[in-house]
Amino acid sequence: MQVWKFGGTSVGKPERMHSIRELLNNDPSRKIVVLSALSGTTNALISIGESAKANEDVAAAGKIDDLKAHYESFIKALYATETGLAKGKEIVDAEFGYIRSLVGIKPFAPKQEKEIVAEGELLSTKMFQAYLEEQGENSVLFPALEFMRIDADGEPELAAIEEKLSAMLSQHPDKQTIITQGFICRNPREEVDNLKRGGSDYTASLIGGAIRAEEIQIWTDIDGMHNNDPRIVKRTFPIRELTFEEAAELAYFGAKILHPSTITPAKLRGVPVRLKNTMQPEAPGTLIANQTSEREIKAIAAKDNITAIYIHSTRMLNAYGFLRRVFEIFEKYKTPVDMITTSEVSVSVTIDNDENLQAISADLREFADLEEHDRDQNIICIVGNFSADKEGIALKVLDALKHIPIRMISYGASEHNLSLLIHSKYKAEALNVLNERLFFYEDAMKDIFTAP
Ligand code: ASP
Ligand code: MG
């Protein structure tokens, strides 16, 4: 079985729902299909909840009417038959009637607020299931609220999800497509709750892990992860394969990909995650798995607004406990450190939140000397498979950057990352030369050498 997840834009227009049906039909595997709310709906529902909380019932009612009008015109284009449309109207009337009744309950509690927010996914899945039924597809709707559970800390209960879901699946062995809601779940108080904003990816990963799916596919409107920032670098391309660790390194750099914790259940159970593009379904997308067969250097990413702090102390020479003292200060000011390099008598670190920089510096000066901080720096991160026996990787990277002053280098912390610190004025140049040298130069050379 596979798990396919479609986000808000992928279900946001009636014709997009039509193409999802086609995509499903073009692939023979049995699937659980996780849907988000239509784009814009979750925000609208949150805003309705806010009005209700502020006792602005007239405003809340107005927002409900506006949103309902959107759904009424949506279903007119979604269904092809009178019967289909009647069913769609029934769903929209019922769900919006329920939203109205929730707004009326006083005092307005977080419990109602979460129920209102859950309506987005309830609407999209019920409407889509009714559409598949209208079209004579062999599908069924599994209410996520019957199997998706979180514990008192908000953590998903994988074992309980697995048990409940497999029981439900065994009751419907003949169904080819199983539709369910992303994002929503129940908490230990049996209330409706959710997996936080953007949580539908998490739902897909939890389901995929729970049923040990063959593959989890996340369908969006971009063609997978790119090897470099397409806003700055010309010749970027989608990465075919990434390991879970490489994906996590890139996620930190704000690459447009799943949040690393989102794919944890998939990683735990070794279920590959594929990022696919609804606009270009035939493209292979990006596959995130335990192992990959691809090239050793996978991607380049950059993180802006970095400050470097240079700490010296002759007391560090052959001493222990010095680093602890340094890091205690960062801990005290709740400031995460990104990169670290050390020599016998100095430590350099980078931070991206310089809110407490003055206080941090003052505390550090009590036992060390500080060189002037470098602000406006950039971490360039090269991600790939750099296991200990690989040779020549650092050489290729440094050779590409030979005209750019480098302030720090960090290599060997993990087998997936080489990071460099440069001034942000060199960022575009660095990304571009690295792109050419690491991704195109080799290919060009290969062509030359293999040419007849
Ligand atoms: N609809 C929810 C949100 O907008 C969940 C999701 O789309 O992943 O955050
Ligand atoms: Mg999303």
Automatic annotation (TrEMBL):
One of its GO terms (cellular component) is cytosol. Pfam families: AA_kinase, ACT_9. Its EC number is 2.7.2.4. Substrate binds at T42, E121. ATP binds at K5, F6, G7, G8, T220, D221, R231. PROSITE patterns: ASPARTOKINASE. Pathway: Amino-acid biosynthesis; L-methionine biosynthesis via de novo pathway; L-homoserine from L-aspartate: step 1/3; Amino-acid biosynthesis; L-lysine biosynthesis via DAP pathway; (S)-tetrahydrodipicolinate from L-aspartate: step 1/4; Amino-acid biosynthesis; L-threonine biosynthesis; L-threonine from L-aspartate: step 1/5. Residues 2-277 form the Aspartate/glutamate/uridylate kinase domain. CDD domains: AAK_AK-HSDH-like (cd04243), ACT_AKiii-LysC-EC-like_1 (cd04912). Transmembrane segments: none annotated. The keyword Amino-acid biosynthesis applies. Keywords: Amino-acid biosynthesis, ATP-binding, Kinase, Nucleotide-binding, Transferase. InterPro entries: AceGlu_kinase-like_sf, ACT-like_dom_sf, ACT_Aspartokinase, Asp/Glu/Uridylate_kinase, Asp_kin_monofn, Asp_kinase, AsparK_Bifunc_asparK/hSer_DH, Aspartate_kinase_CS. Residues 314-362, 380-437 form the Aspartokinase ACT domain. The keyword Ion transport does not apply. GO terms for molecular function: aspartate kinase activity; ATP binding. GO terms for biological process: homoserine biosynthetic process; lysine biosynthetic process via diaminopimelate. It is an enzyme of class 2 (transferase). It catalyses: L-aspartate + ATP = 4-phospho-L-aspartate + ADP. Belongs to the aspartokinase family. This is Aspartokinase. It comes from Dyadobacter helix.
